[in-house]
Design a protein that fits this description.
2 domains; Ribosomal Protein S5, domain 2; 21% strand; Alpha-Beta Plaits; binds alpha-D-galactopyranose; alpha+beta; four-stranded antiparallel sheet; 379 residues
């Protein structure tokens, strides 16, 4: 799919040209998992998979959305009465975004939209954030709204928190809006300031989809968030970003054991995110490798968000990469993808190794994406 093809499809459906056509990428997080809603640090990159949206204004107050990926299913609603649609749950991302925009900007008219995307769903690569940001970009351009990338990310997050019902952090929407081609982004989720950094020339982002569909993700995700908030409150800090390992150890006996481990993951993960960012800048791949391995172990043992097929993939690939690259689960967890930073000369070996062992061991077929870091929709 590209913008020109989407324009043609739009014209076929609506009998006029779209006024705007835009694209928002999905993302892969290199390190810093579940730290975003703890006001901490994350290190994602926007990837070359995303959502496309084409749009035009209407003369009435209705919104019409057609989803190419659902056999051109159509959803219609009035801007003045936006409710959730349990039958066409894909449309709730559009409804949620339009509701926050309508509340904040009192939109002058309804719109026509056509959307399509190629971010695998339920794989931890932010298909929903890329969908939200694509709609935000389309509406921003249609009505020349005063929305920059950070504002767009906050509005997308609000739609997801309040309308879709997932208490996600800011990472996915912000990288989809503000990612930079060929760079990863160290994002401070408290101040929302960020620093782009290039990846070493020889290291490629390889994503291995376990094809274990995330089950129970929203409820488990929201539970992790509550446990982190409980940890911060027991430690007497506004968020776990302010906690230290020393303060955690001192409070250990007064905390439920599970809350202690959740907090330990967040505190150590924030530190690892900085370590990896610095190590990549210095081309110190052995340290990158260690940080990613420790991040995975912490997600498996302390945060308990990995599943056996994902643990198997990480073990398999780290055995091949050794200290020449790194590998860990990426995203919210409970299935989804593994991200590996792989030297060019080992990419085919990684693919062969996964093809040889993964299905036999787990009964799942893996899908491998050789990725590049791309530009965000508002960047
Ligand atoms: C999901 C959420 C993000 C973040 C990650 C875990 O992708 O949408 O906000 O919390 O999980 O790092």
């Amino acid at each position: 799919m590209d913008n020109a093809q989407l324009s043609v499809a739009f014209s076929d459906i609506y009998q006029h040209q779209p006024s705007v056509v835009c694209h928002a990428p999905g993302r892969v997080n290199l390190i810093g998992e579940h730290t975003d809603y703890n006001q901490g640090f994350v290190f994602p990159a926007a990837i070359n998979f995303g959502t496309w949206a084409a749009a035009s204004v209407r003369e009435d107050r209705n919104c019409c959305v057609v989803a190419m990926d659902y056999d051109n299913a159509e959803s219609q609603f009035s801007l003045d009465n936006i409710e959730s649609d349990p039958e066409q749950s894909w449309s709730n991302y559009v409804r949620g975004v339009l509701l926050v925009l309508q509340k904040e900007f009192s939109l002058p008219s309804g719109i026509n939209l056509l959307v399509t995307g190629n971010v695998p769903q339920g794989a931890g690569l932010s298909s929903s954030a890329s969908f939200e940001i694509a709609i935000l970009k389309a509406v921003t351009d249609l009505f020349s709204l005063d929305i920059d990338g950070v504002k767009a990310a906050l509005l997308g997050q609000k739609a997801e928190n309040d309308f879709v019902g997932c208490s996600c952090g800011i990472m996915d929407q912000l990288i989809s809006a503000m990612g930079k081609k060929d760079h990863a982004m160290l994002l401070d989720c408290q101040s929302l300031t960020f620093d782009h950094s290039t990846l070493p020339d020889d290291l490629h982002i390889v994503i291995i989809n376990s094809n274990v569909k995330r089950g129970l993700v929203d409820s488990e995700y929201n539970l992790r968030r509550q446990q982190c908030e409980q940890g911060a409150s027991l430690l007497g800090v506004p968020s776990l970003r302010e906690a230290t390992l020393e303060s955690l150890e001192a409070a250990k006996s007064a905390m439920p054991e599970v809350v202690y481990r959740r907090a330990r993951h967040i505190i150590t993960e924030n530190a690892r995110t900085h370590t990896m960012f610095d190590a990549l800048k210095q081309n110190d791949i052995a340290t990158v490798s260690e940080a990613m391995a420790a991040s995975h172990a912490s997600m498996r043992d302390d945060f308990e968000i990995t599943v056996p097929p994902i643990d198997y993939l990480v073990e398999l690939i780290s055995g091949l990469l050794k200290d020449k690259g790194g590998v860990r689960m990426t995203g919210g967890g409970f299935g989804g993808c593994v991200v590996a930073l792989v030297p060019k000369n080992l990419i085919e070996n990684v693919k062969a190794l996964v093809a040889q062992h993964y299905f036999e061991e787990t009964g799942y077929q893996a899908t491998i994406y050789d990725c590049t870091a791309t530009q965000g929709a508002f960047a």
